[in-house]
Every structure is written in structure tokens, then in C-alpha cells.
Design a protein that fits this description.
heterodimer, A: mainly alpha, globular, B: mainly alpha, 4 helices, NADH dehydrogenase (ubiquinone) activity (chain A), ND/Mrp_TM (chain A), CPA3_Na-H_Antiporter_D (chain A), membrane (chain A), NADH_UbQ_OxRdtase (chain A)
Amino acid sequence: MWQQHLAILPILIPLFTALIQLLPWGNRPQPKRRAIGLAASLLTLTAAIFLLFEVRQQEMLIYQLGNWEAPFGIVLMVDKLSAMMMLITAILALPVLIYGCFSEDNLGSHFQALFQFQIMGIMGAFATGDIFNLFVFFEVLLISSYALLMHGGGKFRVRATLHYVLLNLLGSALFLIGIGTLYGVTGTLNMADMAGHIQQLDGDQAVLAKAGALVLLVVFGLKAAILPLHFWLPQAYSTTTGVVAALFAIMTKVGVYSIIRVYSLMFGPEANELALVAHDWLWVMGLLTMLAGSAGIMAARDLRLLVAYLVVISIGTMIAAFSFASTATTGAALFYLVHSTFITGALFLLADLMAYERGKTASRIVSGKKMANHSTYAIMFLLAAISIIGLPPLSGFISKLMILESATANSHSFVLWGAVLSATLVMLVSISRVGSKMIWHTLSGKPSEQSAPAGKRIAVALLLLLSLLMTVFASPIRDYTTEVAEQLDDVASYPMFVLGQQAETTP
Amino acid sequence: METLYSVTVGILTACSVFLILRGRSFPVVVGITMLSYAVNLFLFSTGRLTIDGAPILGTQESYADPLPQALVLTAIVIGFAMTAYSIILAVRARGEIGTDEVNDQNNSTEGKR
């Protein structure tokens, strides 16, 4: 009975949790809200795991909301890619929430509820099969992110948030223009149905649809922080609290997901006149994004800013790899996406912990006092650094190797090799500088007395453990990401599933 | 009618782009509000413009597409909420930073002193 509603559970659970958390819970509401939030996150995780197994069996789950038939009503379309993204969201959310429960949530009001609304928006964006519904879920996740970004207050945060909000309002307006153009040309909003209509376009109509597609690329590029649109990211991520920045590790991936979804399903190789409209742009912009990120980490004088630029580099790598439009590179890029989400999340939390224990020098990359738990952080930082740079043996190495190896079939591959490897070298140099300044060369004298709660360290350790697990279980995960890429290539199967299943779906 | 309509949308968009490129947060917020009006009108026109058409099939010769109208309603509600939030934020930024300038390092520290 409940299995048929599985597709919507990861959206409903956070929604109701947030509503319950908003209730007045007496004099000391925070412990109760925390307990509810943690339990709900576990529940979401369980649902996401079930969903992944179910999708692996049935290829795709279609959930017709209100039982309106597919091209007219809104459907949730959970394919293997969506299930994977929902699972990594749920996995990332748990350690981040644990970290947040150690009084990070007392810095502002309603952190717990906003956190759940944020998860709901992200899950919805991954699950939906309707492009206008995608816009709505984007707004849901954005409005919670506006509030979360402000969490804790302060002058710099307010300014960074103002920039972020204004940019995203502009992005939303462009999103509507893009959707409107595509609707005007194709007469549908269902992504699978639209893919079919786009294949039949020619002449003026095709040009209009191309304009719509490229407007959408600007919007998704803004969310994913691709080169000319990435300037908001370093400021926003480095000024906000560590726990919010760690959660936002998944936010840029929402943009990447939308790019993969729209430009492989609707404007993929089978779209005739509009085949691969965005891929040339993505290729160049991906490479330049990597370059901009590399320049950023070299110039960064603050660890949190450096981590923010690491996010930019990872986005560039993914986008450049995806632009090859081959099954193997897309699979490899997805593996890299999973790896980079967890590891950048861990790094943001670690930077926050180190900043707290260093006291006055905070996260600036200068020599400071010895931290209270110096050796623990040293080991954590070493692991995280090895993983994000891509040194053997951790998951970063495996994923970069997969990207480089899978690209060899293409004639552009030497450019990608050059870009990825030079970005790796720059990362190695910059992160080594951080390690030697902040961990190796400490000032003599007593270590700092401020010690972060052990639970926070455990939360970071959990995220780092994921990188280790990804190394150990690299083969099954790679098998899955390859399956995802194969399904994305099989564009014809989407309309079949979405439009052909009127009979046996929800009541 | 189509010409008049598209010219209106175009002028609204042009004005909003001009305002958004200003350096102070108040014109930017007004510009974004204006842009959302332009976008709403644009979205409305994606179902083609019809006069005297009921949004129901089979009742009349000409009919209107109801879907863009539903989309515009959603977009208006969301845009309204976002505008309210950005105004509150701009006011708070004005209070905390001490200036209305969107992007400046020097003036803001002077304002603080």
C-alpha cells in the first residue's frame, strides 16, 4: 500500500516535520525540535534508500499527483538520477543536522524548521517531472536558503544574503521567461512530453525553443555557479555559518542536476535541430569555471573562502565532463558529484570547527594558537585534503581517474586532462599551504582552551567516513552511476513511462 | 493587439533592466518588481492572446488557454512574497551597514564609524 506513495515520501516527511517543529513546544522547545528533526532525517534517509532500490527494480517511478493524467497534471518522475540525488541529499542532511544540533541552531530562530523546508525543496526539485513544478520547488528551496543564509545575523551576512536574494530573484524571472518560451512553442510543461515535441520542431519554432533553452541555461548556471555567474558563491558560502554552508554543498548540485536533466532529456542528442544546444557552451564554461576556481583558491586568505572556491572547481569539472555527452563521462561525472558533495560538506564543517577552536585568528590562513583537539583536526584535514585534491587512495582519486579515463575516446580529451590535472596541482599547492600554516606552524605556548563539543567532531568524521566508504565500495557505486547515465541516454524510454502509465498508478 | 502587448512588455523589461543596474538597493528592488510584472505579462501571452474566449473547450468558437493563467497566478504569489522579503532585507542591510549602496567596501566602513 505505502510503496505506491514512496516517490512523494521524501517531500512529505520534511514538510510535515517542519510544520510540527513550528508548533510552540513549551519553555524549552529546542531539545524537542532537535529530536523531531533528527528522527525525521533518519526517516527521510530510509525512504530515500527504499526509493533507490525500488527505482533500480522498476527503472522509473511515476507518481501522478491527484491522479491527473500525465501531460495535463503534474507528475513526479523519479528515475535513477533523481533517486541517487535524493539519497545523497538525505545522507548529507543527517551529519549536518547532527552538527547543527550542538547549539548552532540557537543562533537564530527556527533553524530546525527552515532546515527541513530546505530539504523538502531540494527533494522536490529532484523528484518532479514537470518544468513549472521545478520552478516552484526552486522557489521553495530558495526562500528557505535566504533565511538560512542569514542565520546568525551580522553585517557581512546581511550583505551577502542581499546579493544572493537579488541575484536569485533575477534568476527566477529568467526561469519564468525560459519556461514561458518553451511552453509557447511546445504547448506542454511535462518534461518527457516536451522532449517529444522538441524533436519535431523546425524553422522559427526551433529558434524560439533554442532561445528558451539558453535562457534556462543561464538560470541553471546561476544556481550551479558556472563561470560568469559564480561571483555570488564565494561570498555567500564563506560568510554564512559552517552548518549552512555544509548543507549548501548540495545546493549547487541542484543546478548541476537541472542542467543534466534538461540538456540530456529535452535537448539531448535526439532533439534533431536542437540536439546538444547547450553542450558547446557547457564545455567552454566548465573549463573556465575550473580556471576561475583555481585562481580563487590561490588568492584565498581564508579557509572558508578557499573551500568555497573548491566548490567552484568541482562544479567546473562536472560540467566540463558532462559536456562530452557520452555515457561513460556522464557516469564518471555523477560519481564525482557524489564524492564532491560529501567532501565539500565535510570541509565546510571542519573549517568551522577549526575557526572556533583557533579563537582570534579564526579561519584566516595564518599561523595561530594550537587548537584544543589539534591532532584530531590534523588527521581529519589530511584525509579531507587527500580526498578533495584527488590523491590516491581516497574517492577523489578514483573519481578523477574515472573522468579522465572515460574522456579518452573524445578528441577534446587532452584539454580536459590538462585542465583537471592543473587544477589538481593548484589545489595541492594551496591546500598544502593551508595545512602548513594552520596545522603545522602553530605559535608556541598554551593550546587554545575553547574545545568544540565531541558530537560536532563525530558529525565531521561521519562525512569523512563517507569518502572512505566511497573508496571501498567504488565498484558498486560506479555500476550504479553507469546505469544512471545509460538511462539518461535512453531518452525514448521517458515518454513511454510518463505518458504510457495511466492505468496502474496511484488511486 | 500583439504589437501593443509586446511593446508594453519590452518597455517594462527595458526600464527594469535599467533600474537593476543601479548601484543602490532600493532602485534594484523596484527594478526587480517591475521585471516580475513584465515576466507575468509575458507568461500570460505564451498561451496566445484571444479576445472573448472562454477557457473551456467546446462552448465557443474561440477559446483561451487556461494554463498560462494558472502559471501567472503562481508566479504572482511567489513574486509577491519574494519582493516583500527583499524589501525587508534591503531595509535591514541599510540599518546594519549604514548605507544603501549595493556593493562598496569603503563607504560601508565609513558609515559604521
